[in-house]
Amino acid sequence: MADPRYAIELKGISKSFGPVQANKDIHIAVPRGTIHGIIGENGAGKSTLMSILYGFYRADSGEIFINGKPTAIPDSQSAIRAGIGMVFQHFKLVQNFTVLENVVLGAEEGALLAGSLSKARKVLTDLSREYELDVDPDAVIEDLSVGHQQRVEILKALYRQADILILDEPTGVLTPAEADHLFRILKGLRDQGKTIILITHKLREIMETTDNTSVMRRGTMVGTVKTAESSPEELAELMVGRKVLLEVEKKPALLGKTVLKVDDLRVKDEHGVERLKGVSFEIRAGEILGIAGVAGNGQSELLEALGGIAKATGKVTLNGVDLPLSGKGADGRSRRAAGIAHVPEDRQALGLIMDFTAWENVAFGYHDAPEYQKNALFMDNDALRADTERKMATFDVRPPIPTLAAKNFSGGNQQKIVVAREIERNPDLLLVGQPTRGVDIGAIEFIHKQIVALRDQGKAILLVSVELDEIRSLSDRIAVMLDGQIMGMRDPETTDERELGLLMAGIAEGRKGEAA
Amino acid sequence: MERLPKWADVVLVPVVSLVLAALIAALVILAIGQDPWEAITVMVQGSVMNAYGWGYTLYYATSFMFTGLAVTVAFHASLFNIGGEGQAQLGGLGVALACLLIPWPHWTLALLGAATAAALFGAAWAAIPAYLQARRGSHIVITTIMFNYIAAALLIFLLVDVLRPDGQMDPATARFPEAAQLPTLNQIPGFDLIFTSNVPANVTLFIALGMAVVVWALLWRTRLGYAIRAFGKSEAAAKYAGISPFTIIMVAMLISGGLAGMMAINNVMGEAERLLQNSASGAGFIGIAVALMGRNHPVGVVLAALLFGFLFQGGAELGLWTKIPIEMRTVVQGLVILFTGALDVMVRMLLTWIFNLFRAGRAVKGAA
Amino acid sequence: MDYATLLQLLDTTLRLATPLLFACLAGLYSERAGIFDIGLEGKMLMAAMASASVAFLTGSVWAGMFAGMLAALLLAGIHGVASITFRGNQLISGVALNFVASGITVLIAQRLFGQGGRTPPLAGDARFGPITLPLAEELRGVPVIGPLYAEVISGHPLLVYVALAMVPLTWWVLYRTRFGLRLRAVGENPAAVDTAGISVVGLRFAAVAITGILCGLAGAYMATALQAGFGREMTAGRGYIALAALIFAKWRPVAALWACLLFGFFQALALRPDVVEAVVRVKVPVPFLDALPYVLTVLVLAGFVGKAIPPRAGGEPYVKER
Q1: ipTM of the shown complex
Q2: Which helix (H) or strand (E) holds A214?
Q3: What's the predicted TM-score (pTM) here?
Q4: Distance (Å) from the C-alpha of residue B221 to the closest C-alpha of chain A?
Q5: Which residue in the set A334, A360, A381 is minimally distant from B242, CB to CB?
């Protein structure tokens, strides 16, 4: 019998996917009525653990106790019955249903809807009053903001009388104001006796909201601490395992002429909502401009507009020549011809064709390059394979087999293929998005060196990353983006994490104009 | 679970699908009180055991190569072109107009002209669904189905009210002039030693084989083919690479429609020598089965087309010599499409399971 | 055109719209649950053959109808296994089953009756007879409405009224019941249904089964009410017209009724080119009338007549994300 004071107690949970052990002998105890943080880097096994708790996966071994009672959770239905509610990173809402319909779905009172809906309307009114969860029950989901949609997810869990609420990376898509509101809601829920599990990789959120924190690293639970008695430094060390300071050796920048000049760049998404709201900056030859910010604040749109993927308005010049931002000439091919290379944020969805071989992927975006042609009619696949072999050697891609499909390489090696392809084009401007996301440590160093080397050759580089460390160690100048705008420019030598964080959160006033 | 080796995926999956389809077909034949063994004997006898049978088998196979290649090209761009039937009928219209309106001096020129017309008409009929998909996101499967019916109605109208010569009863065009008639295999020196009696297989067969090579080179050796395949795998990534979705959808569908249309030089010009109602007689749909069975590779398509040629000729023989109705071949066609196109996951799971049994067996032996 | 001709035309419209309506509603359940079904045609054909055969052999139209429903359910089951269990391509599965149905119906009918793949003509209790609605004869004298009631509304086989009743029933099921809510949800976002602890597979199979039953009724109506027996390819593309009607109606039940009536009206017109010529004063070739439903559907798909947005998860097999 486990201790009934704990809302959740996991004992010896292990889970493997083939040769990969995602969770190794996990022990964790979450006291009732607390907010418990689970922190760890991407791929540390947090999401797998929570999926086991919500019945998506079955653990290979180990036991789950809910309120002291051993509980089997073979499916989501059992998790709901055990009082567990889950708010996924990607919401599970029916877009063209109303709030009410979404809340009721799966928790109906009987075969007819009328009773369920009127009951839910009443419960929802009570819940919104109690926890600052005000949402119009008759609003259709697709008309709601992301923050409101998340509240609907929380309401769904509460409507099912969840006592334990799990939130998976809840702030990734929220504005700072929305995130603050969320944390107020969570604290309110805790004060009413609910147990909250907050999964995140952001230290600040852990420090601000949790009572206890468990740290995961490479599939294992490395420790649980009382948050108030800990410090960000201690947690960070636990997360990473050793003191790593991402220091990249680099010489002072030798600035040349202006390569890229962006003036009042604006991008609207498919719903007509402006995602990039008038961004202006310049990058000079031999300079890395880093864009810092919480994901979803217009960085992707910036890259897409410059890379010719998204339509935009405003004025962009490359080496003094205007780049078309919509219509003819605003496509990836024309951009490459103009001298822009692009390592996209999502290499698997954009940067590579996963079913294509490595050599076919080396031609991706450059399949009409003259050196890959045999004659006017045919491509020179032999030349392509030879070029791939050479690139694989230079960039240490493993295994160095050009005929292997991209999907069979590890994340780091996939990224090396993309980086090799784009950097070896010798572009005037390199756009790089999240260059080291999901990439192992060794490859990170290598990719960072390549980026710096390109800069030292006098090229301009626009670096977008949500990893603040990466931005700080690589950039010659840092622009912080929030809500589609640049909040300020900082010199990495004179700024610190705190100042950047405040800018990212929109708390500090940006200095107008250019730094450095 | 280990994955299947590549050779098994390429060879065994279609073969096993075919065997499963054949098994069920045999059960169907048993169920209607006939003898499956007799059926297969009659089919083989009538289609591949003599030159005359081959003459028909190859004739059907020629049509299926065109429609199979048509479906293949579209498939590689991730487009499911069910409109081969209508495009082939329009191709027939192109052939008929070319043969009837232009006084060709020699069949070679007539072939060139008619093939061009067939391809253009077929491509034109694919162009509207393609445009609607590319610009307005209308689902190409539904629009191409609709265009099959519209094509059928259009041709009935043209054959009844416009192209039918005065005094002729049946809805068809006039017979094509002598100079626009294609030599059949029994009229070609060399081949006439094998094919001694009149067979419908004609020079179009060589054009079909040539088109298979062209399609292969197009898809795997040219920039356009690269772009088509990349777009087919991921539209988002294609956009990143600067491959225009609009261009690819249009070009892939035009090629696909053109190939389907070119089928008409085989049946309309090479065999019927006039345009009849329902000229494609289902070959457009069989192209789907052929492409699936041939794993969307021209070599596979040629082999699968031969197989379906055999099935078609053999099925006709069944209707003649046994009590099994000719519709048996439609059943087999459906079963092949079902197993290769919709139950492929099941077949693959089955094979993987068997493979793992073998592996486990070997491992046990090794340990002992 | 006089009033009597119009009534005749409307009467034919209703008779011809009925199989479309059954098939269209059948497709609606399946597609609303996220399973595309272009195999409506095959299921109707299968049901037509089965119901005509059994009705002839037993002499009971009811036995025939149930046989038709079972036959269509069988095909629906295969479609379900292929597209739900094995996550196969739903479009290809539908195409395949249409071919299987097209061939096997002839094989079976030939085996049973040896009449070239058709069933012997049905008569008496082996067919659905016309039902005269109450007061039809008494009200016939009332101007305008009387003949309309007696000629158009009254005097159809039972299944015509069943089909009409299916429209409000489907609307009610879809929008007023728990099952309908879940059905619509699973076609829009199966992950939402799954995380709510409801079986996606179960729901989708239920929807596919309803599709089978309704296609069964469509086929049974074709063979035992509209016509007296089964003939090869007797559905003649009605499954595809029903699919067109479903798109035209933007996957909504009441709109489906109007779409089917419209397309049924076109079919009725195609039977009476003389009437069309008299009205528009130009000779309209019959093929144009035949093609009209398809042309209209293409226009709808192209977004020229409002935008048709299919259920968001339609055609996509559901795979639990990691």
Answers
A1: 0.91
A2: strand A212-217
A3: 0.87
A4: 5
A5: A334
